[in-house]
Amino acid sequence: MSINSGAVATGSHRAASSDISQSFLFRSPHDGWLWADGLEDVSDRVRASTPADLAGQVQRLLAARQGTQQAPCLVGALPFQGMASARLFLPGRVIRDASSLPMALPHDLRWPAPRSTGRSLPAEEGYCARVAAALDEIAAGQYSKVVLARALTLEFDAPVPVAGMIAALAERYPQAFLFAVPQANRQGVFLGASPELLLRRRNGWVDSNPLAGSVPCHPQAAEDRAQAEALLASDKNRREHALVSERVADVLSGYCDQLSVPDEPSLIRTGTLWHLSTAIRGRLRDPSVSSVELAAALHPTPAVCGHPTGAARQAISRLEGFDRGLYAGMVGWCDHTGDGEWAVSLRCADLAGAFLTLYAGAGIVAGSDPVEELAETATKMRTVLGALGLTLRAEAA
Ligand SMILES: C=C(O[C@@H]1C=C(C(=O)O)C=C[C@H]1O)C(=O)O
C-alpha cells in the first residue's frame, strides 16, 4: 500500500499534531487514506499546455526528489479551466493507511448555525434561464450537451471546523473519493466527497468510471428502486451518459492495447443520488505514461463539460457567470513510478472560516427540464450540506 521510498509510512503511524487545514487528504474506496503534510507549493512551477508537457514537468519535479528523504509524490488539484487556481504540492511526508485516517478526528461534532439561506450564483431563476438558453443552443445544433453549474455561498455564525467537516463526510460517504486541499494564502480548504473516478493507474493497468445521468435517492426502499430503474430505462439519461462513456473510452483507446468497456451502463448509489455508471479498464500500451498525463488527457470529460468539448466549454464561459475554480477539475496524486489516482472534483465546497461555497452542475441535453436541473444541482449540494445536517429549499422543486 505504501508509496515505496522517501518519508512514506503506512499502517498505524499517527500524525495527530499536524494542522489538518494545511495538509492534503485523499481517501479512495480502492486504497484507503493518503495524507500528506510539509507541503511545498509547486502550483506555479507546473504551467503546461498539454497533458504530455504536464507529465514531463511533474516527472522532473519528482525526479529531483529521488534519493532525498522527501516523498517522491505529487499531490493536489487541477482546476476545471486553465492553471490559475491549480493547487499542486510536493509533500515532505506521505502517510498511507488502507483503513483509517492517520490522525485523530473529532467525534463530538457541533456545527455553527447558518446566518441565511445562502446566495446562489447565478440566482435560482437565473440558473433556469441559462438552462433554457442552452436548450435553445442545443436545438440550434451548436452542441449536444453542456454541463451548467451554480455556486451557493452560505455564511455561518462562527467558523465551520475543517476537521469536523472531513470527519462527517468520511463517515457519511464511505464509498466516496474524499478530499481536502489547502487553498492559497491560508484562504481555507477545498473539500468534498466525489463519487467519480477520473483515472487510476496501477501496475500498467488503468481504470476510469465515468458517471452521468442522475436521479435523487428516495427514503422509501420501493420508491428508491423504482427511481433507479426509471433512470436506467430513461432515453434522455442514457444519451447524456453515452456521450461521456464513449469519450472516455475513445481517449483511453489511444493509450491502451486492451480496453474493456461494458455495452450497457449500470447503476451506482451515492447516498444522495443514483447515477448511470460505466467502469472502463485498460492495459497501457506504453507503461511509462503517468497517471497525471492520462487524467489530464481525459479532463474535462463530457460529465463536467459537454459535447463537443470546445463548443461546450465556450457555452459554459458564456452562460455560467462564475469561476468554477477547482470545482469540476481533478484531485489526487501521482508518484515517481507514474502510478496514482485522480477523482473528478465534485460534491465539493470551498470552506473559508464561516463561509462555505458549494458547487454543483447538471448535464443539459435535448429534453432536459430547467426546474428539474435546478433541483438536481440542489440534490448534489446535499452531499456536503448533509454532512452539516442542512437541507436546501430548491430540493423540493
Ligand atoms: C456536474 C456534476 O456531476 C456530474 C454530472 C452528472 C449528471 O449530470 O447527471 C452526474 C455525475 C457527475 O459526472 C456535479 O456533481 O456537480
Automatic annotation (TrEMBL):
Keyword Isomerase appears in the UniProt entry: yes
EC number: 5.4.4.2
EC class: isomerase
Keywords recorded for this protein, A-Z: Isomerase
Span of domain Chorismate-utilising enzyme C-terminal: 124-380
SUPFAM superfamilies: ADC synthase (SSF56322)
Pfam families (UniProt xref): Chorismate_bind
GO molecular function annotations of the record: isochorismate synthase activity
Protein name listed in UniProt: isochorismate synthase
Protein source organism: Insolitispirillum peregrinum
